[in-house]
Amino acid sequence: MINNTPPKRILIVRLSAIGDVLMTSTVPYALKNTYPGVHITWVVDRLSAPIVHANPYVDEVILLDQKQWEKQLRQGKVLTVLREIANLKQTLQAGNHDMAIDFQELFMSGLVTWLSGAPRRIGPTPSREMNHIFMTERVGYPDKPTHLADRCNGMLRNLGIEQLTDRLILVMPEADQVIAKQLLADSGLTDGRYVTCCISSSRPQKDWVNSRWGELADELWQRHGLHTVLVGGPERKEQAEGLAAKHGAHLISVAGRTTLLQAAAICQGGVALVGVDTGLTYAGMANDVPTVTLYGSTPSTWLSEEPLVTIIHHKLSCYPCHRRPTCANFDCMDAITVAEVVAAVEGLLK
Predict the structure, then answer these.
(1) Which of 24, 98, 160, 171 has the fewest Cβ atoms surrounding its Cβ within 10 A?
(2) What is the DSSP-derived secondary structure letter of residue 274?
(3) Using one digit for the tens of pLDDT, what is the confidence trace for 205-257?
(4) What predicted TM-score, i.e. pTM, was given to this entire model?
């Protein structure tokens, strides 16, 4: 029998990735409004943790390093991993959570939910990787979400929670904003008239043709006097700096030179944003920055109701291929032209 007593301590389990963690950022807000005084703890992977730390509705953050565990297992350090899991279990159970909600629907997140010892362990249905074996309850979410927070809000609504918001929550620390502005000022950009380009994703089939970022920057400068700022991870640093060297002072690269939140602050400070299917692209949406998203191998319908968002997506016959592309040159991303991206940016700026 389900205990209907309002929970005092709730555990959120959403480990990764950056975009998914951002999409779950609305959950603590809803829980705090529904259960005044409730204590919210969030278990998150170390790489995505800054997003959770920047959420004012989260009281406590517990870190988990999945990549480190995977590395240790490959090295045969099974006992080390087991000890770390035991330590995590002890930390989780010390929280005395009344309820744990898993928004990840995978084996690892289910295991973490179960380790918490919470009497109510709630996960989504359908789920993957045997996630359901760890749950005491399962709730559905929308089959075809149409905005960023739709999946999480759907789960909460099915739990009777209605104090919802569709707007992602990312309150930027002032220190990160100051550093971000200084990075741009050091490159000669002080007026905020720039378009941010989020150029790196987790899989090559989600990336746009690299040279076109430079061509886009040239067009935006010539047509509107707008600088272009490239943001991305360390793996794109060399490529981005090569583009900046080739195309002149109106193209600035900070790829690989920022923390996650500093990059997010740059995304939130421009007049518009262009990005592939990657977490930082959504950081601008949390601050109502007009955004053009470039999609290929993955679905884009869950952005269809987002305000100030234009989706460019050529759905070829092989769509969606997700992690198993059938072409060598990622034809769907190659089909996106500089001209249509420029037109989309201009449409949003109007």
Answers:
(1) 160
(2) E
(3) 999 999 999 999 999 999 999 999 999 999 999 999 999 999 999 999 999 99
(4) 0.93
